[in-house]
Amino acid sequence: MLDEIKIENLIYNIRDKQVMLDSDVAKLYGYETKRINELVKRNIERFPEEFCF
User: Fold this and answer.
1) 19 near 12, Cβ under 8 Å?
2) What is the pLDDT of residues 1-53, one digit of tens each?
């Protein structure tokens, strides 16, 4: 698992918003990127509007 310092390096500031790439989120949780995206699409009501763009 990634430690706190490495996680901070995965957070990017784009247009004054903090973002993480889907591939980095997948690594954190031990899933394939494709699976993370499927889970978000199937459960979009569980994620805040600002979660995805």
Assistant:
1) yes
2) 566 668 889 999 998 988 999 999 999 889 999 999 999 899 989 988 777 76
Amino acid symbol at 3: D
Q: Which two tokens stand for residue 16?
A: 């004054």
Q: Among 13, 44, 17, 39, which Cα is nearest to 26's?
A: 39
Angle between the N-to-C axes of helices 33-42 and 22-29, in degrees from 0 to 180, rounded to the nearest 10: 100
pTM of the model: 0.73
Residue type for 51, please?
F
According to DSSP, residue 16 is labeled: T
